[in-house]
Every structure is written in structure tokens, then in C-alpha cells.
Design a protein that fits this description.
The strands form four sheets. The chain has a seven-stranded mixed β-sheet with strand order 1-9-8-5-4-2-3, sandwiched between helices. The chain has a three-stranded antiparallel β-sheet with strand order 7-6-12, with no helix packed on it. It is of the alpha/beta class. It is built from twelve helices and 14 strands. The structure holds pyridoxal-5'-phosphate (PLP).
């Protein structure tokens, strides 16, 4: 059996260091907003190349609190790709803002910068881009479009830890980056966890206030805040894993290269572009007979996944929210995409078995 993912195996190389870190935090008696969080925040900011990083409870909160921090008005519009995980859109909806869908480029699966202009109105406030599957969006084009229209750019980096475009990392292109450290992500904790990145001092201060009951000084509440804190144990684990993130990404990239070099032409493979450093949180292919292909692989003891089976516009929760918006390209991707095994624990021989099985389909 070739598993699609096994987080226990991904974390096994770090087990001894995690155990020591756990004992240290346990013995310190300080479990929330202490030195481990501070240390991880400065290490993660340095890794991303940003001035600040703020530890948060999860990736969804990193998106929700960013939109809160900007104090947009109810009904203001946020441009977002039609092809994304639901969390990106939920963050907009939870703020009383209106998600305006923009279709992806069918070759990159990311928001198509050429389609953004036609969706900009007088109510547009922000572009919330998603570096899907670990590939950066066309950030140079998007930033110049945002600048000329006075729009804030928020990056959903939940699938793109360490990805970069022309050497500039995810989370350092826009005004704000939102990261998730959900266990399956390239930089995954052992529980829910997340972070923000920004180069904006005032925004960083606002985020650190919002995550902690709207307070900087204990029992003095300046704004209506939340409880969305990264905890010390997870921060300690994340500091350990961050040192190996480049190895994790390099391993995934070497497996991706095998797929890219060897899969035959019946499969649509991810595009590789000059200047883009992709980290393959997910390695997807597309095929018109996706479901048949998935069953066939399962009959050969190879597990796969689908990211995602249902486009946001077709989710029950989005009825009355996204109705009538553009989503045909997103639907086409959701109907044909298949995610192949590409985890840190997978061996080259296993990926070779997957490739041989696929090419015989
Ligand atoms: C995982 C993910 C999120 C949400 O992160 P959580 O930590 O699970 O809240 C948001 N956006 C994208 C694109 C994701 O993949």
C-alpha cells in the first residue's frame, strides 16, 4: 500500500527533539505567549524575509483577523480566486464583506491577474490571493494592479511555506501573509496553529492586540479582540521543524521532478515557470476520467486525494452568497484534478511505482 499521507511518519524524524522541547515547556510552567512563541515569531519572520510574524491559533484566524484589522465596512468587496479552499472565502464572509470571485489561469490554477481588473469596483478594498498547491501567484502583476487601484493585498500562504517568486518569499509580497501550520501543511504543527507575516509595524501591533483579547497590557482592553493565540508547545515544535523546512520542500520538489519528467502525455501536469520556486504542498494532475483513474490506482494499492471535490460556489454553505458568479474554470479543475502521493516520508521507489502505474492506465 502506498499511502497518500501519513503525518506520524512525517514527524518521526523530529520525535526526539519534540520530546525534549515538550519537557522544557512543561517544566517552564509558561504555556501561552511566552519565549517559545516569541522565538518562533522572530525565526519565521526571518525565514519569510518579513519584518514581523505574529503567532495565531490557526490559518483561518490569520485570514479573518487580517480583514478585521483593516476595518473594512460591511458590504465592501474582496477579490478572491474562485478556485480555492473554502477557508479563504469564509474569512471574507465572517467579516460581513462580499467575496468577488475571479477565475484562475487554467495552467497555474491560481487567480488570473488578467481577469482581476474587470471585477474592480468602487467598493473593492482588497485582493485575497491564494498560492494554491504551493505555487506562487503572479505577484508582480497583482501588486502593480493593486497599487494602481489602492487595494490591499492579503496572501493566503497556507499551502506555500517557503515558496518564492524571483527570490521573494510567500508572505512577503503583499501587505499581509496568512499561514496555517495545520499538521498536513509543509510546515505542520501537532495541532492547529497559524501565523501572520507583515512589514507594516502598525498592522503587526494590531494583530498582536487582536489575538489577545484586544489587549497589550494585561486587563486593559483597547479594542474588541479575540482569543487566537499560538501556544508555547506548538511554537517550540514549529521552531524545530522550521530548521528542516527547506529539506522538506527539497524532498517534495525532487519527487515532483520525477512525476514531471516521467508522466506521459495523457495527464495534465503542473506548469513549471521561470522564476517560480514551487513547494508542492499538493502535486496534482488532471485527467478527464479522474474518478476512474483514482479507482484504478486504488486497485493497485495506491492512495490519492482530491483537492478539492466541490468548488466553493457549489458548496451548500455558499448558497445565497456566491450565486451567479464566475466559476466555470474552477468547476472544470475540481472535476478533473487528482492529488498524487508527495509527502516528506515517501521514498523515490514508491513514487516510481505510482508513475509506472499511472503510465499504464
Ligand atoms: C489549510 C488552509 C487554510 C486554513 O488553515 P487552518 O489552519 O486549517 O485554519 C486556509 N487556506 C488554505 C488555502 C488552506 O489550504
Amino acid at each position: 500500500m502506498i499511502e497518500y499521507e501519513n503525518i506520524g511518519k512525517v514527524n518521526a524524524p523530529f520525535a526526539a527533539e519534540y520530546a525534549t522541547a515538550f519537557q522544557e515547556v512543561m517544566d517552564s510552567g509558561w504555556y501561552i505567549l511566552g519565549n517559545k512563541v516569541k522565538q518562533f515569531e522572530s525565526e519565521f519572520a526571518a525565514y519569510c524575509g518579513t519584518k514581523h510574524s505574529i503567532g495565531l491559533a490557526n490559518g483561518l484566524d490569520a485570514l479573518i483577523l487580517a480583514l478585521k484589522a483593516y476595518d473594512f465596512k460591511p458590504g465592501d468587496e474582496v477579490i478572491v480566486p474562485s478556485n480555492t479552499y473554502i477557508a479563504t472565502i469564509l474569512a471574507i464572509v465572517h467579516n460581513g464583506l462580499k467575496p468577488i470571485l475571479v477565475e484562475p489561469d487554467i495552467t497555474t490554477y491560481n487567480i488570473d491577474p488578467k481577469r482581476i481588473s474587470e471585477k474592480i469596483t468602487s467598493r473593492s478594498k482588497a485582493i485575497l490571493v491564494v498560492h494554491l498547491y504551493g505555487k506562487m501567484c503572479a505577484m508582480d502583476e497583482i501588486m502593480s494592479l493593486a497599487d494602481s487601484n489602492g487595494l490591499i493585498v492579503i496572501e493566503d500562504c497556507a499551502q506555500a511555506h517557503g515558496a518564492h517568486l524571483n527570490g521573494k518569499k510567500a508572505g512577503n509580497w503583499g501587505h499581509y501573509g496568512a499561514f496555517s501550520f495545520y499538521p498536513t501543511k509543509n510546515l505542520g504543527a501537532l495541532a492547529d496553529a497559524g501565523a501572520a507575516t507583515t512589514n507594516d509595524d502598525a498592522l503587526a501591533l494590531k494583530m498582536s492586540t487582536l489575538r489577545n483579547y484586544g489587549s497589550q497590557k494585561k486587563y486593559y482592553n483597547e479594542v474588541v479582540g479575540y482569543n487566537s493565540r499560538l501556544d508555547e508547545v506548538q511554537a517550540a515544535f514549529l521552531s524545530i521543524k522550521l530548521r528542516r523546512l527547506d529539506d522538506i520542500n527539497a524532498h517534495k520538489r525532487s519527487l515532483a521532478k520525477m512525476y514531471l519528467d516521467q508522466l506521459n502525455d495523457q495527464f495534465i501536469k503542473p506548469i513549471v515557470q521561470e522564476g517560480y520556486f514551487d513547494v508542492y504542498h499538493i502535486f496534482n494532475i488532471r485527467h478527464p476520467k479522474r474518478d476512474e483513474l483514482r479507482d484504478y490506482l486504488l486497485s493497485k494499492d495506491i492512495k490519492t486525494d482530491i483537492h478539492y471535490p466541490v468548488a466553493p460556489i457549489d458548496q451548500q454553505a455558499m448558497k445565497g452568497i456566491l450565486d451567479g458568479q464566475d466559476s466555470e474554470i474552477a468547476r472544470e479543475i475540481h472535476a478533473t484534478t487528482l492529488s498524487l502521493p508527495i509527502s516528506f516520508f515517501h521514498k523515490k521507489e514508491e513514487i516510481q511505482t505510482v508513475i509506472d502505474a499511472l503510465n499504464a492506465f
